Amino acid sequence: MQLPREILVGSGVIKDIPEVTSSLRVGKRVLIVTGPTKTKEIGEAVIEEFSNSDYLVELTTVKNSTMEDVLEIKEILEEYDFSIAVGGGKVIDVVKLGSFKARKEFMSVPTAASNDGMASFKASIKGERIFSLDAHAPLAVVADTSVMMNSPFELLASGCGDLVSNLTAVRDWRLAYLLRNEPYSEYAAALSEMSAEIILDSAEIISRRVEESYREQCGVGSIMMMYLHGGDWKRIRDTLKKIGAPTNAKELGVPEDKIIEALTIAHKIRPERYTILGDRGLTWEAAERLAIETEVISP
Question: Which residues contact 25 (CB under 8 A, 6 or more apart)?
Fold first, then answer.
């Protein structure tokens, strides 16, 4: 299990990035990678924090999270000792995989809580579909809450949906361990479940204002998967409602037949990962019944 060596969370902690970098002992040539707009301004603020140090710090930007972007960052990183990803999931995932390929360590500086990838070793890269690839976890995570609180609320709602989906993901993992003898870690599973439980217990303090996103779809999917697991699916649904995240097809803005279709093909998306859907998936009739029972679509 890969975990960051340093984790710093709080208001104004961007100013501590040079000190954290020094403690990591990763060399003096640092590349900061950001998105092209708002996060670039934050990246420039990070550079300013290094102004009185002996570090050589430069900045570059990425627009997308494709393999082309990953390879471009890998090539640039050949000239640097260390990289700092300042941005959302796209930027962090590109730097995560690019630095992994370049055999260089990196720091994650998330600007939004849109998913749990800010500290993980997995990178979501776009191709004809989204691929989740193994890379490495950041050496450090510096999460400045004064920055993250200014991101659009729908990104926070997406992150909540992503974390809540850990509840069914862990059950699928245990199932794969029992039926396929796949490697399983109680510690990693406990961390994932704890993160989801924190969201479930904190839903009342998160206000409503969201839009459709992939991570929010994960939340809706978790309602239905928890139903299949025989767990408390209503608790997940009610939590997402309190947060302000979508809980049905209408709120997602997705046609009901697309929900059913997605359920019938979901087992094919990542066939190497065993889930409650099994090897054969759901029939159209079973998928429709599941979506109706969980109130994701209308009767």
Answer: none
The single residue listed with the structure tokens 């029992």 is 178
Residue with tokens 């471009």: 72
Helix (H, G, I), strand (E, B) or coil at 54: coil
d(CA 97, CA 21): 20
pTM of the model: 0.73
Site of tokens 């059950």 = 171
CB 289 within 8 A of CB 260: no
Sheet containing 82-87, strands listed edge to edge, beginning at the edge strand earlier in sequence: 6-10, 140-144, 105-110, 82-87, 29-34, 56-61
Question: How would you class 186 by CB atoms within 10 Å of its CB: exposed for 0-12, middle for 13-18, buried for 19 or more?
Answer: exposed
Q: Give the model confidence (pLDDT) of 157-206 as tens digits.
A: 788 888 889 999 999 999 999 999 999 999 989 988 998 888 888 776 55
Closest to 290 measured CA to CA, from 268, 262, 267: 262
CATH number belonging to domain 6-151: 3.40.50.1970
Q: What's the fold here for domain 216-298?
A: Dehydroquinate synthase-like, alpha domain (1.20.1090)
Residue the block writes with tokens 């004064």: 146
Q: What gap in Å lies between CA 9 and CA 144, rounded to an integer?
A: 6
Distance CA 22, CA 251 (A): 47
